[in-house]
Amino acid sequence: MESNLAVRIGKRVLQLRKAQGLTQDQLADSSGVPQGTISRLERGVSGDVQISTVDKLAMALGVSIEVLLTASSETEEMELVAAAL
């Protein structure tokens, strides 16, 4: 997946993880995704992200893949559009 999408996914993972009171280690344990991968994804330095990783994170966070692929707010969506220009 392209890197702008990876940044969006990382932001959503961070928001959802914190909203659920989970640490990166706890999310790693429940998803099977290494903690380092989660950290890089949340910080926006992961580059590309595999769909299997997105699927594992979505399942562990109790959301659909679509939730991770969509902007969490109108402001974030506008930032993503601006970044693409």
TrEMBL record:
CDD domains, per database record: HTH_XRE
Q: Which Gene Ontology molecular function entries are recorded, alphabetically? A: DNA binding; DNA-binding transcription factor activity
Q: What domain of life?
A: Bacteria
Gene3D superfamilies for the chain: lambda repressor-like DNA-binding domains (1.10.260.40)
For this protein, the record's PROSITE patterns field holds: HTH_CROC1
Q: Which InterPro entries match?
A: Cro/C1-type_HTH, Lambda_DNA-bd_dom_sf, TransReg_Diox_bact_type
Task: Domain (HTH cro/C1-type): give its ranges.
Answer: 13-68
Its cellular-component GO annotations read:
cytosol
Keywords assigned: DNA-binding
Protein's recorded name: HTH cro/C1-type domain-containing protein
